[in-house]
Design brief:
Elements lengths: L1 H11 L15 E2 L2 E2 L1 E3 L3 H9 L5 E6 L4 H16 L5 E6 L4 H6 L7 E6 L2 E7 L4 H12 L2
Parallel strand pairs: 3-5, 4-5
Antiparallel strand pairs: 1-2, 4-6, 6-7
Helix pairs in contact: 3-5
Length: 141
């Protein structure tokens, strides 16, 4: 378990060095990625609840077919916003406590959070137009 957490933390760090430009990257702001995987409860508190920027929280699972469609679609739209909003990915199998705390009863569940508060939410898959409207409402555009 400790090795898996260490590997997850390593994989969530931004790429550096001469090969960095060859990897898949997302929009950055101040050297940080727009999309990140939540590591634990304190990471969620630091990077989501205490974030000065709005955060979209994608509660998903590896076994969830619709999650595999929604996740990349949402990541692409968040990256287009170039740091105006962040995206936190929470695997419900790894972080059951967060799923329970935020009353996630089905996946995918997406929360919109501002200043640590849930301001909007949807469950299930959405098309790109619906996702754009959801994100624009969150950032006030």
């Amino acid at each position: 378990m400790a090795q898996r957490l260490a590997l997850q933390r390593l994989l969530s760090l931004p790429a550096r060095g001469p090969l960095a430009s060859h990897g898949r990257t997302f929009g950055t702001s101040g050297g940080r990625r727009s999309t990140f995987n939540v590591q634990d409860g304190s990471d969620f508190q630091d990077r989501v609840v205490n974030s000065p920027k709005p955060v979209v929280v994608d509660f998903h699972a590896q076994w969830c077919g619709p999650c595999k469609i929604l996740g990349p679609r949402l990541e692409k739209l968040v990256a287009k916003l170039e740091g105006k909003v962040l995206m936190a990915k929470v695997d419900i199998d790894d972080h059951t406590d967060l799923a329970i705390e935020y009353e996630v009863s089905a996946v995918p569940t997406v929360l919109a959070m501002k200043n640590g508060d849930v301001v909007d939410k949807f469950v299930g898959i959405k098309d790109e137009d619906q996702l754009e409207a959801f994100l624009k409402k969150l950032i006030g555009a």
